[in-house]
Specification:
Elements (H helix, E strand, L loop, with lengths): L1 E4 L3 H11 L5 E4 L1 H9 L8 E5 L4 H14 L4 E6 L4 H9 L4 E4 L4 H20 L16 H14 L5 E4 L6 H10 L8 E5 L8 H6 L14 H5 L4 E5 L6 H13 L1 E2 L8 E2 L3 E6 L3 H6 L5 H7 L2 E4 L10 H11 L6 E2 L1 H9 L5 H16 L3 E2 L18 E3 L11 E3 L1
Parallel strand pairs: 1-2, 1-3, 3-4, 4-5, 6-11, 6-12, 7-8, 8-11, 13-14
Antiparallel strand pairs: 9-10, 15-16
Amino acid sequence: MFVIVSNRTDLVERFELAFQSGVEIARESIRQFQWRLQCQDVDGLTVVVFDVRTSIPEMGNLIDALACRRRRGSLFAVVPAGSVELAGELAHRGVDSCLPANVDARTIRELLLKRLTQYRAFHSTLKDVPELRELLIGESPVMHTLRDRIRRVADTDEPVLITGETGSGKDLVAQAVHRMSPRHAGPFAPVNITAISESLFEAELYGTRKGAFTDATDSPGIIGAGHRGSVFLDEIGDLSLPLQAKLLRTIETGAVRRVGDARLTHFSVRIISATNRNLRARVTENRFRSDLWYRLSGLHIAVPPLRDHPEDIEELAYHVLSHWGREDVRLSRRVISWLHRYGWPGNVRELGAVVRRAVLNSDGGTVEPHHLEIDQYPEATATRGYRRRGGPEQGDLPGLLPD
């Protein structure tokens, strides 16, 4: 079912003209759609189109509410022509695509049929995709929310920006997005932006042609290696401004020119990026391009720090033991208690290192507190010396401030 939330009949007429028959299209007022949300009657919606021209604040609230509830279907917004900043903000809030106010019936049909084709093809093979629980461990409400967000975000072809503290598992979230996406049969090409020097950026990312320089070979580069799949740009917040401009042009044109090659090579990839930086603040400080931010952050996933879901710590610790082939090792209750009290500034990565070190110190059997080498850590208190930053907005990184 298609629902158009608008007070204008001309928009409905254009959708009806685009499909003519066989598609149920309904127009609802803001109040009618609010009632639909209250009744949780959203599972049968294939496409929802919000006419943001009606009322930007009220439509924004409806988009936020629907984005938190929907499990499938597409979310579009009709915006005034030239509203680039508004389109970027709506993309952050979960809108799959924005349509200009003067969009014609033919464009509507082509865009929505393409979207529905992707949706059906993906769900026909969804049974073959591994469960998210195998990749992202934990049964806390926080982890359930994260997995739900990944499912919603994965079922699109929009760029994804993953934010979170160091060691929180952003790379695993990126893999999960790829594995749950319509591109899951294609390659997943990760690259750590900080590991590439500026002089080699184009060669590493775009590839080289044999003979371009000494010892150069034919190489597709990271972008080419990810063709028809996903490219994961880790630590994107640390990319220099000159390289940001080059990356933006590549994303906008959908083509690269390999070093030493006169021809353009077109590619089809989904861009997934990650950072532990606050890109919104960096844009304000002129340290990150706003146009690149809008391009990269079509959809957003915030990865919670480990201190926000301490109830998962024991399961995660035993998962580390299992992955390390040490199912014979047990953690004493005193050790579990310490693990729950510690603040984990290094998040899941630090937890893994602590557990592995303790196992080596214990020589197997049961791990006790003295095996943890607690003297290496601050006093095992989750909040000592820190206070949580209150009420971060969506898109801001949760963090710690000194008392």
